[in-house]
Amino acid sequence: MIQLTPILEGEVGAQRMYLPARCGGQTFAISAASALAVLRLDNLTLAYGAPAHVVGVANTKFGVVAVICLARWLNLCAPASALGGPAVLMGNGAEIIALAVDEFADAFAASHEHAVSAPLQQGPAPPPRLSGALRLGSQLISILDLSSLFDSHAPAENVSLAAY
Amino acid sequence: MNELLRDFLTESSEQLALVGAQLAQLESDRPNARIVANVSRLIRTLKGASGILNLPRLERIADDADALMSRLHDGATRDIDAAPLLMSTVDRIKSVIDILAQDRGAPGGEDDALLAALRKAASPDETRLPSPFEADFEKAEQTSERGADTTCISHDALDRLTALARDLVFTRNQLNEIVKGAADPAIAAPLHRVSGILDELRESVRAARALPAERLFAGYSVFAQDLASDLGKKVELVLDDGGAEVDRPLFNVVRESLLALIQNALTHGIESLDERLRLGKPEFGLIELSAVQKAGLVTLTVSDDGRGFNSQWLRQRLIAFGSKTSAEVEPLLNDELCRLLVATELCVSNRLLEKDLRPSGLDRAFAAMARIGGAVSLRSAPGEGSAFTLLIPSKLAIAPAVIVVAAGERMAVLRSAIVRSFEIGQADPTPGAEPMVVSTIETPEGVLPLARLDLLATGRAAAADPRIVLHIAARRVALAVLVDEIIGFQDVVLEPLPSPLRNLSLYSGVAALGDGSAVMVLDPAGLARALGVSASNAVRVGVAARPISQRVASSMVIFRAAGKSPRALPISSNLRVLRLTEAQSLQATQEGATAIEGRLTPMAWLSGEDAPRSANTVLLLQDGEDHIALAVEEVIDVIPEALTVEFANGRPGALGVGGVRGAATEILDPNFFLDRRKRRRLLDLSSKRKSILLIEPDAFFRNMMMHALIKRGFQVCALSGVLAAQGAAPPADLLVGALIDVDAAAADGGAWVRKLRAGFGEMHAPPLFGLASHAGPAMRRRASALSFTCVFGKFDRHGLFAALALAESMVAPEKAA
């Protein structure tokens, strides 16, 4: 059975909470504001014909949701299967999806001081995958822009910190 | 157009947009004096200005609306009652102003219905306001089955009730999974009762939520004709509700959305009369409004044969929204522009809603969809027309489904889409594994395209060739798919496909199973599309291809059986040639019957009683529900010409003798064997052990249960009704029990069942189990009155087997004694 873990509040004072997700050898920050729960994908049902980054559907307490492999969505090196791995349920108010990653680290709070400028977008397509980055000490962590995940489901070009 | 009129029209349009947004707030149950004052002010301004500018039609509408506003202002009428009428009035004023703004002269059309409604509403002795659609609603109301005693409950309460019912269905499925295979009646019986109660609860909740799409469409014809008349256009509105049902809480929102789309199609889509004639189009513009229900979604389509969305207009609109630059939209094609426009409109509508503004025109449709989490798509061809498709989520969809396995993946097919299932023999040809081949198969309903579900829905081949055929039919589509296994039935809560999967036509939705996993629900129409089979060419396939047997009018099959002389049998729609598997052949020779296509089929031999028997190839004769397999040694030929019976030879089962290629050939009478099968049907049972009598009119359930019972080691005599069993004494000594459809038993008032029970004697009567689709309390009372031991749901296989195991254990000691 899928296990659910509640997510922290999205904002703490002037700071915003982020959930760091490791995927394809990189770390990305997911805004906790739209994260509903973290779960382990103990079952995954194939949806044949789906886009490559949609690895199937899973039953959760929020209903049956599409499971999207973050690594495939970002065209990074993806595991063979998302089954058994961690995922975060993300909602945009109208719909919920599960975002499968390699692993999660502890959530952290960041303020505007940590933010660096957003990456440049090349042309109208593909839709943006990153909304910016956070500098935490010497480490630079990309912030995922998941809004396009609900609008557009085409895989992106390779994404890396080289854009910064 | 003079400057004064232009200013008036511009200002009025802006004011009307604002008032439209405010009117939406009147729909809430709170009086709002500020809004009433604002609307009154605007109506009075319009009334005065239209008089000065000599716009008599506008003046009439504003005048009558003003009277209603006075009553609202005085508190004589509730805001909430007046809101729909005022919205219609504002919409009418908008359309008149739009026509004037296009400088097309004085707008024509009739406002009689609207004016009458306004006057009636403003009359001092009117306490309840009429709606412009009231007559249509009343008509639709009469067609609905709602009783007179009704009560109102809030949408929240209804949602809560639905959620509880869904959770209960899910929990029941979980419990069924846990006790699966357990024969403990202490668990099975209460669970079965819970199941029955839940079925009734589920149906009650569904009935409480559902509103037929027919009601949704009520009033649109009048609206369209009125508006078309105003615009000087001719239009035909075609409505097809498709038997769909819309969720009650979404009713008003969906209605508003459809209204906006129809208005848009009429105002902007359908060309003027002159333009249509010039373009060679029919005088009457066509607007089609259709509804289709599919799993957890209701799809509503509003299409027109008007001018369609011009690419240049779409580009300008996108640039005007600020979402795209000129360089970005220039290379895009019409389809891409349509998709972008819909996405942008939905975003804009969301922003308007966030700011508490009421959008107008086409934006109203998008805003309504945004409010309920629906989806919109647009297809358009310039000069040919456009079609808006709205996907409305439904919370109504709890339906029985059959869970099948293909290449290790579980999938669900709605029970309502399955006509029958049967197993084919190892020797029967099936589509190859690589590449995916669509073959054909013959069923009693005709020849169908056949494909392997493993290749179709998983892209890989199963370990072993699948042998179970599902005959699927829905909405003019019929096909057959091969599956590895049917693993069960469940009432599933259907959910719409998640948006990343919405483009997958193979599936109609998703559902959660009792073990907590998710399953994809197959869509028959999607399967047909994937096979490249449409309703029309399915018919063509049905005529052209017959891989298993030949069926040619006025033909004969020539075969050899019990001797060297050839024999002939006329080929008709009820004859097929089948090759039996080793297991089937062995069962046929030992038991005198074998399972063919999921049905226990009695055998007939042309050899004498004492002659050695073998059955590798059979001629399967069918007449409705009756069927028999005639064992033959080999099929020699099929002759595409009718034979003439030269003379009767007096042998039972033979029509006579005719000449085939110069040789005298005995021509057999297929009806003889079918009649003999009828006479012997129940007698066959006496030679079997662990026998079950199954009386079930529904072929699907009958085949399915028979298959399951045979797998459990029972010998089954399956009949379609008690009338078929009349006149034959059932064997008493080896009958474990009888499974009888309660409705079928009630067909003769229960006389046959009582006779059956009486024939055994009270001490030796085997249990008679009733079968029902919904084994609720009412059904149990009915079954009890018909002398049934107990009643089971047809989907409750576990409960049924537990009861049969108990019955068997009670019969066994007696037999041992």
Topology of this protein?
The complex is a heterodimer of chains A (164) and B (817).
Chain A: E1 4-6, E2 11-12, E3 15-23, E4 26-31, E5 35-40, E6 54-60, E7 63-69, H1 70-73, E8 86-91, E9 96-100, E10 103-104, E11 108-110, E12 115-116, E13 130-136, E14 139-144, H2 147-151
Parallel strand pairs in A: 4-14, 7-9
Antiparallel strand pairs in A: 1-5, 2-3, 3-4, 3-10, 3-11, 5-8, 6-7, 8-9, 12-13, 13-14
Chain B: H1 3-26, H2 33-52, H3 56-74, H4 79-101, H5 112-122, H6 134-143, H7 155-178, H8 185-209, E1 210-212, H9 213-217, H10 220-231, E2 235-240, E3 245-247, H11 251-269, H12 273-279, E4 285-294, E5 297-304, H13 311-321, H14 326-329, H15 334-354, H16 362-372, E6 375-381, E7 385-393, E8 398-406, E9 409-414, E10 418-423, E11 439-443, E12 446-452, H17 453-457, E13 468-474, E14 477-483, E15 485-495, E16 507-512, E17 518-522, H18 524-531, H19 535-544, E18 555-560, E19 566-571, E20 575-579, H20 582-591, E21 593-596, E22 599-604, E23 617-623, E24 626-632, E25 634-639, E26 654-660, E27 663-668, H21 670-685, E28 691-695, H22 699-711, E29 715-719, H23 722-725, E30 735-741, H24 742-745, H25 751-760, E31 768-772, H26 777-785, E32 790-793, H27 797-816
Parallel strand pairs in B: 2-4, 9-17, 12-14, 19-27, 22-24, 28-29, 28-30, 30-31, 31-32
Antiparallel strand pairs in B: 1-3, 4-5, 5-7, 6-7, 8-9, 8-15, 10-13, 11-12, 13-14, 15-16, 16-17, 18-19, 18-25, 20-23, 21-22, 23-24, 26-27
Helix pairs in contact in B: 1-2, 1-4, 2-3, 3-4, 3-5, 4-5, 7-8, 8-27, 10-11, 11-16, 13-15, 15-16
